[in-house]
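>> received
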Amino acid sequence: MAMTRAFFYCGLSSALAMLAPAAAEATRDEDARVEWLLRIDEARERYDAFATRVVADRERAVETRDARQDARLDDPTLRKGDIIVTQTGLLMFEGSDKIAPDISDFAPIGEARARRSEHSATLLGILRARPAR
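>> returned
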């Protein structure tokens, strides 16, 4: 019986010794997961602060600017190369880092520039059209 008990304790201690690395691995995995979740929360907080600042900057820019004659200049989806039609003619957006672009961010499109465009027929048609009276 003493021999059986000795074998049992030897087997039990061997099993526990084999489980210890697995438990340590599980602890490391849990620590890594907690650290990852903390990084996600920090990134979310940085993004929320950025988004709040952008919205506040946009609202401040809109409030401090005179009312525009042409609201199309306030389009937040404008991309470099976009063309808008105004009462004075065609304007191409040259790009801007500003929250709200102004007229200096646009270049007029005359007939010479329209001819060089891949959409020359359409642009020339718009330039030559007479306003309805």
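>> The two ends are 114 Å apart (CA to CA).
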